[in-house]
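re: the backbone from monday

yeah here it is again, tokenized this time
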């Protein structure tokens, strides 16, 4: 098997405090908060952001040859969502991109498929979890994504963690389910799931430890995840691993992001791990699966450029109101702006402009070096015709040149904040600002983020927006 050569997790900017739900509905409140995908985010856009974090700084020679996208909440059916991710990451046309969806267990399928690939492969785990208002799924759920890149490793991109063992146990029982036409899941009585999961988790964990030829007390970090909280806590306590080895589940900070939880918790452990440590990841979902990894001396190389899980949690905005949360999730229908709804993007021009619309490539004039956004055939600087090179701009830092707050423009979450940004090294562009509850300041640092502008006639219109820079300390 190949090893892990890069990873990244994406935690949305917004949080909903659990006590905010209780204060509105009069039900149980409680401590903590859950992460919330904004109105312009979904599992596809979050997977793109996680992948960008994982791939940042890697040489082009390790571009993924395969993309496996796992989610229990796909934006599209009968259309490959991974193809949108493939386009946004500007991957080679020969790179395979496929969906693995329907249930949280698909996350392990994506990880193992990537680990067993003969070429660099990217496992993307993403989920948006919700439930009926006031229910446990709403309070305990969370939204997030994670990216795990596996490969043989090179001098420029060495293996940072070896996958040394894995074991899975599959069992058919009614624990959690959702029909394709439903928006929320149904759950059997939790004591039943706790009873069934206990032996499955033990068998899977023991088999993986035997493969790795180690004991439970030799595990430095034990990650246990799944959508049955009692079963997760029970196994963690009885696993035989030391109490200091049990990794935090982050549920009081971001909730449980379902399909994405294994990747997010693994990323959080890798953020804190040191070389030579053993990590056991146990997932309880329609059975049990255990992965055992051992970190290498190259782990510190990744930490130098990674936006950590802890940093993203600390930067979250927990001022989101429950009414806004419900409107973003479509539970509370809000009066739309009294403006004509935008037309859905047409297929032919979208396909022709893929490098611009999805990968956010501008053009740089080969004569005068003027950068144009969107790309143009005739240079605005010197008038040269068809003498330019496509220029990737998605990861180029930018600053706000000017802005306006537009209360008349169509947007699912008014008002719209429009900004004009200047990119480092040239290029100016007008776009929306997202992930900000305040008006920006002139000169503020921003970065580009892949978002869903709107959905019209069943078509998701993906494009790029600006957001306040989250990597300022990394860039300085």
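seq for it, each position gets an aa:
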């Amino acid at each position: 098997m190949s090893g892990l050569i890069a990873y990244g997790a994406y935690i949305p900017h917004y949080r909903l405090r659990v006590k905010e739900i209780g204060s509105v509905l009069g039900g149980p409140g409680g401590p903590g908060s859950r992460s919330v995908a904004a109105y312009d985010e979904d599992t596809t856009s979050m997977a793109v952001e996680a992948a960008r974090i994982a791939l940042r700084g890697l040489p082009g020679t390790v571009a993924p040859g395969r993309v496996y996208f796992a989610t229990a909440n796909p934006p599209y059916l009968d259309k490959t969502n991974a193809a949108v991710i493939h386009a946004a990451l500007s991957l080679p046309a020969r790179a395979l991109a496929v969906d693995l969806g329907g249930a949280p267990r698909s996350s392990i399928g994506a990880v193992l498929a990537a680990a067993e690939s003969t070429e660099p492969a990217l496992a993307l785990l993403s989920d948006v979890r919700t439930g009926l208002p006031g229910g446990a799924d709403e309070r305990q759920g969370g939204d997030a994504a994670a990216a795990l890149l596996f490969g043989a490793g090179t001098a420029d991109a060495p293996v940072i963690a070896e996958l040394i063992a894995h074991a899975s146990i599959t069992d058919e029982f009614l624990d959690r389910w959702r029909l394709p036409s439903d928006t929320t899941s149904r759950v059997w009585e939790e004591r039943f799931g706790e009873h069934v999961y206990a032996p499955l988790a033990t068998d899977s964990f023991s088999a993986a430890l035997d493969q790795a030829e180690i004991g439970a007390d030799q595990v430095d970090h034990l990650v246990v995840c799944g959508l049955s909280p009692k079963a997760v806590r029970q196994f963690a306590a009885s696993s035989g691993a030391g109490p200091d080895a049990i990794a935090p589940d982050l549920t009081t900070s971001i909730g449980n992001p379902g399909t994405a939880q294994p990747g997010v918790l693994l990323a959080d452990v890798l953020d804190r791990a040191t070389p030579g440590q053993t990590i056991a990841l146990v997932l309880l979902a329609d059975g049990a699966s255990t992965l055992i990894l051992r970190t290498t001396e190259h782990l510190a190389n990744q930490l130098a450029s990674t936006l950590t899980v802890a940093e993203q949690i600390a930067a979250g905005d927990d001022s989101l109101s429950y009414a806004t949360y419900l409107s973003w999730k479509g539970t509370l229908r809000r009066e739309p702006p009294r403006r004509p709804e935008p037309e859905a993007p047409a297929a032919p021009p979208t396909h022709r402009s893929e490098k611009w619309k999805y990968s956010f490539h501008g053009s740089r004039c080969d004569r005068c070096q003027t950068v144009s956004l969107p790309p143009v055939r005739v240079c605005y600087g010197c008038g040269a015709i068809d003498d330019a090179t496509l220029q990737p701009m998605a990861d180029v830092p930018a600053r706000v040149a000017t802005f306006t707050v537009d209360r008349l423009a169509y947007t699912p979450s008014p008002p719209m904040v429009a900004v004009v940004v200047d990119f480092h090294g040239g290029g100016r562009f007008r776009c929306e600002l997202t992930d900000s509850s305040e008006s920006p300041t002139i000169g503020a640092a921003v970065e580009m983020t892949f978002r869903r502008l709107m959905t019209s006639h069943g078509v998701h219109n993906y494009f790029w927006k600006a957001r306040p820079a989250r990597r300022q300390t990394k860039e300085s």
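DSSP finds 15 helices and 21 strands in the chain. The radius of gyration is 22 Å.
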